[in-house]
Specification:
The protein is mostly helical. 71% of the residues lie in helices and 0% in strands.
Length: 164
């Protein structure tokens, strides 16, 4: 997208992806939609500045992550989203697959927000350290440190659950 894109065009093009990003960050579809709506309302007020950027969609993604990191109430509700993207049928046990997804969500909800954000940006958005650092306003070393801590936390939670 270039600097001539309208606000409405940008919203239509990016909203589904921003909601998916919000879902990965919050673990809850309603919170994800609220998060994106908050960001889009703020972006509308700043549209003159945002529309002149080379990559306004990347700016919106950064806004979503930053808004998630600043929200106080967002993780109070530990609900898991009911709606899932449509997947192709497979021969595997659907119950086992859903149980694994639920367990993954539960593990992610135990991580501090910054750690969850770096994992989502790395493994869901497929961004490199420098891109994540730009979004979060930290150094690439801080990103690597947060990823390392997040993965260690996940391993600890997994080993604790296996011991139970």
């Amino acid at each position: 997208m270039d600097g001539t894109v309208t606000y409405d065009e940008l919203v239509r093009a990016t909203q589904p992806r921003l909601v998916r990003l919000g879902l990965m960050l919050t673990g809850n579809l309603h919170n994800a939609e609220d998060l994106v709506q908050t960001v889009l309302a703020r972006a509308h007020r700043r549209w003159d500045r945002i529309s002149s950027l080379d990559h306004p969609e990347a700016y919106l993604r950064t806004m979503v992550v930053n808004e998630f990191l600043s929200w106080r109430r967002i993780l109070k509700n530990r609900e898991l989203p009911l709606a899932e993207p449509v997947e192709r049928p497979s021969g595997e046990d659907i119950g086992s697959r859903q149980a694994l997804k639920d367990a993954t969500w539960q593990l992610l909800t135990r991580l501090p927000r910054q750690q969850r954000a770096v994992l989502v940006l790395r493994y869901y958005e497929d961004l490199d350290d420098a891109e994540i650092a730009d979004i979060l306003g930290v150094t690439a070393g801080t990103v690597r440190s947060n990823i390392s801590r997040a993965l260690a936390n996940l391993r600890d939670h997994l080993s604790t659950e296996e011991d139970d």
